[in-house]
Amino acid sequence: MLDNLQTRLPAIAISARDIDRLRHLAEAAMEKYPATAEFLAREIDRAEIIPADRSIRNIVTMQSEVTFIDDISGQKRTVILVYPEDADVDAGKISILTPIGAALIGLSAGQSIEFQTPSGGWRSLTVIAVGSSWPASPTHGK
């Protein structure tokens, strides 16, 4: 089943700006959240790395505002993908260390991904739109 799933995974891209921190986060989370950390690590390993100086549009990055549909329930949600310390479900900020967060990273509008939840069930999400929640300041993140 995993081999079949691997062939259906969409191509993804992650900004070089995010990659080192994401790798460190996945490694640090292996003991506490093994399934999600392994999923995130696999996504990082298979992603195309986009140079930090290249503009990224319509790709889910850290701090992106993402609108997606849960393909099973039909529920539509808009969230901001954040690092764990900034997560606030009530404010629509979901952590990269959640199964949904790890699934969304690197996807583009129109792409879908299937993934297994920690409880063993399967989910499928389709990204409808990607925006940026970064402040206009060019010094953000420096």
Topology readout:
Blueprint: H1 2-8, E1 13-15, H2 16-28, H3 34-46, E2 48-50, E3 64-70, E4 76-82, E5 93-95, H4 99-104, E6 112-116, E7 122-132
Parallel strand pairs: 1-2, 4-5
Antiparallel strand pairs: 3-4, 3-7, 6-7
Summed up, the helix count is 4
Unreliable stretches (pLDDT < 50, length at least 5) are 1-7, 135-142
Main sheet summary: 5 strands, mixed
**Fraction of residues in H or I helices:** 25-40%
Percentage of β-strand residues: 25-35%
- Helix and strand succession? HEHHEEEEHEE
Over all CA atoms, what is the radius of gyration? 14 Å
Q: How many strand elements?
A: 7
Write down the overall mean pLDDT. 87
Structural class of the secondary structure composition? alpha/beta
Spatial order of strands in the largest sheet = 5-4-3-7-6
Distance between the termini: 42 Å
Characterise this structure.
The strands form 2 sheets. The chain has a 5-stranded mixed beta sheet. It has a two-stranded parallel ribbon with strand order 1-2. The radius of gyration is 14 Å and the shape is globular. By secondary structure, the protein is of the alpha/beta class. It contains 4 helices and 7 strands; from the N terminus they run H-E-H-H-E-E-E-E-H-E-E.
